[in-house]
Amino acid sequence: MTDPTFTEYARLARVVVKHARVAFDSQARIDAQWRDLHYTSAPDPGRAAADYDAFLALVTSRGAEALALPPGDGVGLDSIYVRDASIVTPRGMVLCGMGKRQRAGEPGAQRGAFEAWGVPVAGAIEPPGRLEGGDLVWLDRRTVVVGRGYRTNDAGIAQFGTLLAGAVDEIVVVPLPHWRGPGDVFHLMSILSPVDADLAVVYSPLMPVPLRERLLDRGMTLVEVPDDEFDLMGANVLAIAPRTCVMAAGAPETRRRLEAAGAEVLVYDGAEISLKGGGGPTCLTRPVVRDDA
User: Fold this and answer.
1) How confident is the model at residue 240 (pLDDT cuts 50, 70, 90)?
2) Closest by alpha carbon to 94, among 32, 215, 6?
3) Residue 141 in contact with residue 6, Cβ under 8 Å?
4) Fewest CB atoms less than 10 Å from the CB: which of 5, 203, 223, 244?
5) If residue 229 lies in a helix (H) or strand (E), which one and from where to where?
6) Residues of 91-100 as b/e, b for ≥16 C-beta within 10 angstroms?
7) How many CA atoms are closer than 13 Å to the CA of 122, on its beta-carbon side?
8) pLDDT score at 15
9) Rounded CA gap, 119 and 104, in Å?
């Protein structure tokens, strides 16, 4: 693996994905799992596959190589949201400890794929530690923010710090709100998506004040998501290059504000692959390498 640029906005060069055709597999699989996983309704596998094709075309439109996860034992529909099971670090991939019990098999499944691809694995978060990839945002190579919530606990953050000792200058831990409780899909990246060194999409009503102040102190312009677009994943935006980003359809005001800030916005239909399972474009991707090209 080449030395990646540790931000959330440099050009995406290599990214792990899991196609809806593989994760959802069949209507029978969907029918057996969607209620237990707290989806809002059952995804349509045919529409989901077509929508994922369109989504993947956008994600790779700036030249990124897509590494496709195969089917895996002990994983379910949620394995489509690949970011949560691993974290990219200067020392290699860190396999997560999942806060959602139905997803416990995903980090192990990703380990097998990383080994097959020659992507180094630095270590894993072990029980009682919990840490999910959606709760971690790199601000720069030496500064990482971790959200402490229901999916990520103190033990997981401590283990992550040990694995990265000496490789980062600061791990900024921010508390996340209760919001809708332990069963909800809520991560740090539900309220924060950097799209350039000085630009981020945020939902400020749920943002910890110290984090918001830190972003402003860094000189970042914050694109505010309106209340009525938060549940439509307006704050969950994937940068595929500086100021070029992918977002789910249905948040037109957030898109307008992004474009007014100088961003190019690429939109996909997320009704089947994002809204029903609570996972936007950042959740659907695990960036492995970003570069400055």
Assistant:
1) very high
2) 6
3) yes
4) 5
5) helix 227-230
6) bbbbbbbbbb
7) 20
8) 98
9) 21
CA dist., res. 248 & res. 284, Å (int):
11
**Nearest Cα to 136, choosing from 158, 152, 123?**
152
The number of residues in the chain equals 293
C-alpha–C-alpha distance, residues 289 and 293, integer Å: 12
Tell me the average pLDDT across 227-237.
97
| Residue-wise pLDDT tens digits, 51-81 | 999 999 999 999 999 999 999 889 999 999 9
Strands 264-268 and 136-140: unpaired
The Cα 18–Cα 16 span in angstroms is 7
CA 158 to chain centre: 21
Contact 107, 85 (CB under 8 A): yes
Other C-beta atoms lying within 10 Å of the C-beta of residue 43: 25
